[in-house]
Design a protein that fits this description.
By secondary structure, the chain is mainly alpha-helical. Helices cover 36% and strands 6% of the residues. It has a three-stranded antiparallel beta sheet with strand order 1-2-3, covered by helices on one side.
């Protein structure tokens, strides 16, 4: 006794994709990728700049607090940012002294825009100066 659902009773209902259908789908995916990926990559760079701006301002704030705690009017020549990560009263983790491009933040004493000091990130190229995402970022 056989039933209508028995696979021996007729042609298979399974159908495979044709080569043309696969080529069309791959072409559509490639086209979408060429339109979307550049936009996503520019967003990554914009996010790194925003993180660097936050980082320089946070470090500058911690330097101000360090100076207040130690009765200093401003950090002196030779002041190292690593003092903010050491000792029992460390205010930052060592990773906080590295910008999103894996370069160290830089401290200028006296500052470039502030008479006391500035904290800076050299941007994506890690070198002073630059344009676009390579522009230096200073605390405000």
């Amino acid at each position: 006794m056989t039933t209508a659902r028995d696979s021996r009773c007729g042609p298979s209902l399974a159908r495979a994709f044709t080569l043309l259908e696969i080529i069309v789908v791959v072409t559509i995916i490639a086209l979408l990728a060429t339109l979307i990926v550049p936009r996503l990559l520019s967003r990554v760079d914009q996010a790194k700049v925003a993180v660097a701006k936050t980082g320089v301002n946070t470090i500058a704030h911690q330097v101000d607090l360090y100076c207040l705690d130690h009765d200093l009017s401003a950090p002196g020549e030779g002041f190292e940012l690593t003092v903010l990560t050491e000792g029992e009263h460390a205010s930052l983790k060592p990773a906080a002294l590295t910008d999103p491009w894996k370069n160290d933040y830089v401290l200028f004493v006296p500052g470039q825009t502030d008479p006391a000091f500035n904290v800076a990130s050299y941007g994506s190229d890690g070198q002073p100066g630059g344009e676009g995402y390579a522009t230096d970022i200073l605390n405000q």
